[in-house]
Design a protein that fits this description.
heterotrimer; A mainly alpha (328); B alpha/beta (300); C mainly alpha (308); A: MetI-like fold; 12 helices; 2 strands; C: 308 residues; mainly alpha
């Protein structure tokens, strides 16, 4: 690497000549190294803060916290099982919709759209990621919730044979609504990452497949999708991670009810949302510590998804595109 | 026949073996290889597969190829030679509509395939490519197993019966079977360049097209692989009509029955067909001075 | 004269080569499938755009009526009147302080990754891993962290704490985009400077950073746009509600636009919703404009880099 080579010659020359600008180089290095150390220190400190502030709850509940369902601050019983359930179900529902939808959009953008259309539709889809979660939450509350409330009886009538669509409850605040809001938020991640991945498939491969008398869908199915499988999986893991950690948008639409129910049309709660809802108004120290504990669980979830995505995306720098997609 | 030709004819009677050493007496004079079908008159009597009339190719406003007309005949190997940048690749890729993917591409004139204009209205591009297959300059095997590479297109076409036999036949015709028969399920990316290119040829002939277009198939390969691929031309042409672009005119002399020489037009400096005919005529007795200059090595 | 060979082979063919060039064999069915997929993919793209349209439409249609000059320069009067001036100033202040931390640290981290630790060195990979992990931490957890780090010891929520939390959210984004842009600076520039005997720090300051400035600015704008909309950490660390006055002391509670919207939503007074939509409108417009500007900047700096 040229920068490596320069550092050797630069430093060697500096040492030989004993120039004062060598201090300048040292200062630059110190500053940069300092920045790196700040990053490392911040990560360590985050873990420390979360662990130490949740220790009252950890020592009281242990790992049972993860499986107990009651959330009862007044009686000192707090279990995160319902929160974990709500987190998982709402995020998985969002992924189940955003996954295929995002890949279809990526197919459209990378292989079907003319460059001009691609230049307009692509950024529009990416803008979905730019909308702040507070706006999704507020919009969800005012617009989506009444809408879902209206169609819930219909959903139950048509799809009621699937246990997921139980009898409608009264308000429209439900895991289903939360899942829909999350879909808005993670769709751009899947779509733009997948599109980038599809565009990296070498043209020679696509041409070779087309020259064998294959339709474009057969080229996609036979060549493009198989060679991008690991990248797409990583993209979905990253999207899932985003959904799992969302707090504000969900707090508007999910109802914050600690229950586990097979039906999506019932209110629920998630880890992040419960923290946001109760943190500034806890009645006991144990409740506060339990919220920190929930935060610790979230931190572990965030770590696992980040690392899993990295592991899966060995060949393509998915994270780079992710940063671009999410930063938008 | 020259001395070299006789010697070669004898060697040809055995099975083609890649890596065989060729003895050249005069490097400047292309020689007749007896693998070519004898007689200009026979060539002219063969049915016409491609009747190209006044083909001109535009990329946007600029022309890449102009006013090219020729007839390509069945079960012959037709070579397209000429210096780089004279539209050889553009020409061959236009025959099976592979240039369609380039947004600014435009073609005028007619490309009649068995009488049907390839660029006519209502023509199904996929059907065109099913009948007119192509092998590219750089080997482009799919990141799948060797078997799946060859079997992929037949599966699409619904030719699932006897798939194993079909794969075996294709690999045998491409002279690759013996080298890979024990590792059909391993990845194709593990093959050498020459093997990968033969795999691409096997892939193309597994669907039994009518025509096989080869765009400089051996230019990225070592001499041994090149010889192997040249040997294939002889055995393949009994089943297919072959058009091969090559920048190596000795290769054209070795494998082709008919040769088309492309170069830049004197006035417009755009690639065009200069001369076309039986290979031995092009190489021994060309009519155009540009052809003569090229084949005797004075340029290009 | 040998007879043409094609007659013998004609019967063995899978298709008739002289037939018109329309779909033969199973191509009709496969072509239909191909057309179906195209339609589905196009519909999917339409859904994606419609999703954005629905949200933007709601925000614009419900928020625009409230927008006027007064909305920007007056403080709230109660919940249903006035403007959001104090929240706007508060958000600006928080973001400014956060950027003050995140921008230098982010650029320096990016510099470290490109100038000192190669992409394959252990430190380089560890640092990139750390940045990825940091980026993957849910923002609520970041808020909790800063709460424990700053709010608890000081016994006080503050805009400063919120700013630090936002800095943590923005840092990985800025570091990564800076690193990308710095990598794009051609090695020839570095080599030329070195050949002239210019010291490393001077090269960085006078040659490399200016060349990368466009990309760094783009990354910073995108990161700031992201930070401006972050509610969870601001809510936790700077939780003041329903302020009617301008508060600019960063070490006390500072109102912010997301918290303003949150407060109104919590109070559930429908008459106040219009103001919340107005605030949402302002927030959305600023963020979307920032994104469009960043894209334009990125395109221009890429073109410039290509010319180097």
């Amino acid at each position: 690497m040229s920068s490596r080579a320069i550092s050797i010659t630069g430093r060697a020359r500096g040492r030989a000549a004993g120039r004062p600008s060598q201090t300048g180089d040292r200062v630059l290095f110190a500053l940069c190294a300092f920045a790196g150390l700040v990053v490392a220190a911040a990560l360590v400190e985050i873990v420390y803060q979360l662990v130490s502030n949740s220790s009252p709850a950890i020592s009281r509940f242990g790992l049972g916290f993860l499986v107990h369902q009651d959330w009862n601050p007044n009686f000192g019983h707090m279990g995160a099982a319902t929160l974990i359930y709500g987190t998982a179900v709402s995020s998985l529902m969002a992924l189940a919709i955003a996954g295929p939808l995002g890949i279809s959009i990526a197919i459209y953008l990378s292989m079907l759209a003319s460059p001009r259309v691609r230049g307009v539709v692509g950024p529009l889809v990416e803008m979905l990621a730019a909308v702040p979660s507070i706006i999704y939450g507020f919009w969800g509350l005012i617009v989506l919730v009444p809408f879902i409330h209206g169609i819930e009886p219909g959903l139950h009538t048509v799809l009621g044979w699937i246990p997921l669509f139980g009898p409608a409850q009264t308000t429209g605040l439900s895991i289903f609504t939360a899942g829909l809001v999350l879909t808005f938020m993670i769709l751009p991640i899947v779509a733009s990452l997948s599109r980038d991945l599809f565009l990296t498939v070498p043209n020679e491969l696509k041409e070779g497949a087309a020259a064998l008398g294959a339709t474009q869908w057969e080229v996609i199915r036979g060549v493009v999708l198989p060679s991008t499988v690991s990248g797409i999986t990583a993209a979905m893991v990253l999207a899932l991670g985003r959904a799992l950690g969302e707090a504000i948008a969900i707090s508007f639409v999910i109802g914050d009810v600690s229950q586990i129910s097979r039906s999506l049309l019932k209110p629920g709660a998630t880890l992040a949302e419960r923290i946001v809802n109760q943190f500034l108004g806890t009645s006991t120290n144990l409740q506060l510590a339990s919220l920190w504990y929930a935060g610790l669980v979230l931190l572990v979830i965030g770590l696992v998804t980040s690392l899993a995505a990295r592991l899966i995306a060995r060949r393509f720098d998915v994270e780079r595109s992710y940063a671009k997609a999410v930063a938008v | 026949m020259t001395v070299w030709g006789e010697a070669e004819e004898r060697a040809r009677e055995d099975d083609p073996v890649p890596g065989r050493v060729r003895i050249r007496t005069d490097p400047g004079t292309p020689t007749l290889a007896s693998r070519r079908t004898e007689g200009a008159r026979i060539n002219d009597s063969r049915p016409v597969v491609f009747d190209i009339r006044d083909m001109t190719v535009y990329y946007g406003e600029s022309r890449a190829l102009m006013d090219t007309s020729l007839k390509i005949r069945q079960h012959l190997v037709t070579a397209v030679i000429g210096p780089s940048g004279c539209g050889k690749s553009t020409f061959i890729r236009s025959l099976n509509r592979m240039n369609d993917s380039i947004p600014s591409f435009r073609l005028t004139g007619e490309v009649l395939y068995h009488g049907h204009d390839v660029y006519g209205p209502g023509v199904n591009r996929v059907e065109v490519r099913r009948r007119i297959g192509m092998v590219f300059q750089k080997p482009n095997p799919f990141p799948k197993s060797i078997y799946d590479n060859v079997a992929w297109a037949p599966r699409n076409l619904g030719l699932r019966e006897g798939l194993d036999d079909r794969v075996e036949r294709a690999l045998k015709q491409a002279a690759l079977w013996d080298e890979v028969k024990n590792r059909l399920r391993t990845s194709a990316m593990g093959l050498s360049g020459g093997q990968q290119q033969r795999l691409c040829i096997a892939r193309a002939i597994a669907v039994e097209p009518d025509v096989l277009l080869l765009d400089e198939p051996a230019s990225a390969l070592d001499p041994v692989s090149t010889a192997a691929i040249e040997d294939l031309m002889h055995s393949l042409k009994s089943r297919y009509t072959i058009v091969i672009v090559t920048h190596n005119m000795q290769q054209a002399a070795r494998v082709a029955d008919q040769t088309a020489f492309f170069s830049l037009d004197r006035v417009d400096q755009v690639g065009t067909l200069i001369e076309y005919g039986d290979t031995d005529v092009i190489f021994r007795n060309p009519r155009d001075t540009r052809t003569r200059d090229y084949v005797t090595g004075q340029f290009g | 004269m040998t007879p043409p060979l094609d007659i013998a082979l004609a019967e063995e063919r899978l298709f008739d080569p002289t037939a018109p060039l329309v779909a033969s064999g199973n191509l009709r069915r496969r072509g239909a499938m191909d057309r179906l997929i195209r339609i589905l993919a196009t519909i999917a793209a339409g859904i994606g755009v419609a999703m954005l349209g629905v949200v933007v439409y709601s925000v614009v249609s419900k928020g625009a009526p409230v927008i006027g000059v007064g909305f920007f320069i007056h403080n709230p009067v109660g919940l249903v009147a006035g403007g959001i001036a104090n929240s706007l100033l508060g958000t600006l202040e928080i973001i400014a302080i956060g950027t003050l931390f995140a921008l230098p640290l982010g650029v320096l981290t990016g510099l470290y990754l490109t100038e000192f630790a190669g992409a394959d060195s252990r430190t380089g990979r560890a640092l990139k891993l750390g940045l990825d992990v940091m980026q993957g931490i849910p923002t609520i957890v970041v808020g909790l962290f800063v709460y424990g780090l700053i709010v608890l010891p000081l016994h006080k929520e503050s805009g400063f704490a919120a700013a630090v939390a936002l800095a943590i959210v923005m840092l990985p984004l800025i570091a990564r985009s800076s690193q990308e842009v710095l990598l794009l600076v051609p090695g020839t520039l570095r080599e030329a400077a070195d050949a002239l005997g210019v010291s490393r720090w001077r090269t960085v300051l006078t040659v490399i950073l200016p060349a990368a400035m466009g990309g760094i600015a783009t990354g910073a704008i995108l990161a700031i746009a992201r930070g401006a909309g972050e509610t969870a950490p601001v809510f936790i660390c700077d939780g003041i509600f329903n302020t009617q006055t301008t508060q600019l002391n960063p070490f006390a509670g500072v109102p912010s636009v997301p918290t303003y919207i949150l407060t109104i939503a919590d109070q559930a007074i429908p008459d106040a919703f219009a103001h919340a939509w107005g605030a949402a409108f302002v927030l959305l417009v600023v963020i979307l404009l920032a994104n469009v500007a960043a894209r334009a900047l990125l395109a221009r700096s890429r073109a410039k880099m290509g010319m180097l």
